[in-house]
Amino acid sequence: MTSAVLFDHPGPPEVLRWRSVDRVRPRPQEVVITVSAAGVNNADLMQRRGHYPVPAGAPRPLGLECSGTITDVGADVTIWSVGDKVCALLDGGGYADEVAVPATQVMRIPTGLNDIEAAAVPEVAATVYSNLAMVARLTRGQTVLIHGAGGGIGTFAIQWASAIGARVITTAGSATKTRAGLDMGADVAINYRCEDFVAATSAATSGRGVDAILDVVGSDYLHATSSALHLMGTS
């Protein structure tokens, strides 16, 4: 037996309980990770509150990302070995002593990060890469507008876009967050509480607009955000 965090009914954090559960065994294309740390995401909070049903087929325990050590590998897995230190994007199940996950959803812990820090990487990394690299196809020399410099997705996106050589414009709601955005590699940081970010973006691009926008705000900002986009850009 092993342990996992489960709950019998929706509610506040107090409904969560450690429970004994069966040991997990990997399918042929899975690995088993002994969990060192698990990320806490909004989807976890919504599920625990009863606002977001667990997807069909997903493990009962919450937890969409984790870090730890591989302790078992499926018969078809060749890219990972027992003892590898990794972090992983999960379908669920991270709030547990161990979790089985497809080998293709696992990555090595980035150099310089401890297990706790690494557990917070997979969700934001997958979100940023899938949007900016796979959908927007952002490349060196292009300009991207990234909302939310102070959030997890924003901080990762700024660093990733800067690392590939894109020009980064970011927005945030305080001077502290805009300064943090600049420190992480943004070329322009706009405090949307003090200035019109559409006008500021237009000025920063000489009226051209940006090639891509990563918008984690949406809602009331959607129309204004779209106005900052170049004619052939991607949002």
UniProtKB/TrEMBL annotation:
NCBIfam families assigned: quinone_pig3
Keywords linked to the UniProt accession: NADP, Oxidoreductase
PROSITE patterns, per the entry: QOR_ZETA_CRYSTAL
GO MF term (any one): NADPH binding
Pfam family, one: ADH_zinc_N
UniProt domain Enoyl reductase (ER): residue ranges: 11-235
Official protein name in the record: Enoyl reductase (ER) domain-containing protein
InterPro entries: ADH-like_C, ADH-like_N, ER, GroES-like_sf, NAD(P)-bd_dom_sf, Quin_OxRdtase/zeta-crystal_CS, Quinone_OxRdtase_PIG3
Domain of life of the native organism: Bacteria
